Amino acid sequence: MKTFHCNCGAVVYFENVQCVACGSELGWCPACQTLGSIHADVYGQYHCGDPACGAALTKCYNYAVEQVCNRCVPTAQLSGETEALCDYCRFNDTIPDLSINGNREKWSEIEAAKRRVFYTLDLLGLPYGSAEDGFAVPLSFDFKGDRVAKRFLWFNVGEHEQVYTGHANGKVTINIREADDVEREKARVSLGEAHRTLIGHFRHEMGHYFWDVLVKEKCEADCISVFGDHDNPDYATALQAYYENGAPPGWQSNYISAYATMHPWEDFAESFAAYLDMVSVVDVAFHSSLVDSVDPASADFQALAAEYAQLGLLLNETNRAVGLLDLVPEVHTATILGKIEFVHTLSKNAPGR
Ligand SMILES: [Zn+2]
Ligand SMILES: [Zn+2]
Ligand SMILES: [Zn+2]
Ligand SMILES: [Zn+2]
To answer: What is the pTM (predicted TM-score) of this model?
Structure first.
């Protein structure tokens, strides 16, 4: 991720909604593909603050009303909709129940993570879309919490309906409990994970999405040669075996995480997430004046992986210096790099780039 500039010259960040230097409101302008100041004219119509652009903009409904977004929609594109949803919010099918205390804050965290993940997908030019866009695998999101049945309600509710974070046919579901820091850290420790983040969840589930979009019935044989046969054993059998026996000893030589050992689909999703981590970390370095880095959007895989390895050493030590978890905890063996390179090549050859 790069940093952006308010029209006053101050540096602003991807999540910001207001410039701390001049007080201007900020928003993502889809016309110039950047975050910058936005200004309302006397009619209340917002415009991009960059005089070279000046596009007429409407704040995303989730920005203007719900305050969980910071993107804008070109006003010219709207045809009287009351809820103008931005290019990222339009994929939301289900949002958390905002009548429950704390859910708006969780939703806000979820949207912030989702925007960062979309930013990297767009940087790579990966193709995604909704049913209206004519996508055979229409992307959509459900953000919801477990429903615990209360007794003595006047209506019937499903008993202890539990929400599973996952992906099915384009629908990515995130249990909003993952936006609760305490709950998420408890889960991380009990599952023995090196990291557990909202961004990581999105990256993993989008890995399943892109398997459906780019691999399924297209290059399954190539994928099998790298990740193994996803039909044998079938997913349900593999899942049960994993929860009974855990990861095989020595898994670190061949898998990016213990969970990746469960089934080739999970291995692919974990490798896809690792690739997006790699691209986004190198992207920070590329836009930093502190290090001389390759451009992750155009670098070949060897250069990208070498850059990430160098940065990993530096950033792990930096984190250790202040007592944080290692930023790049995995050791990238040749086998693991081969899997990540498969994702890289798939991304490079994706249609519509
Ligand atoms: Zn400013
Ligand atoms: Zn603009
Ligand atoms: Zn939005
Ligand atoms: Zn998965």
So the answer is: 0.94
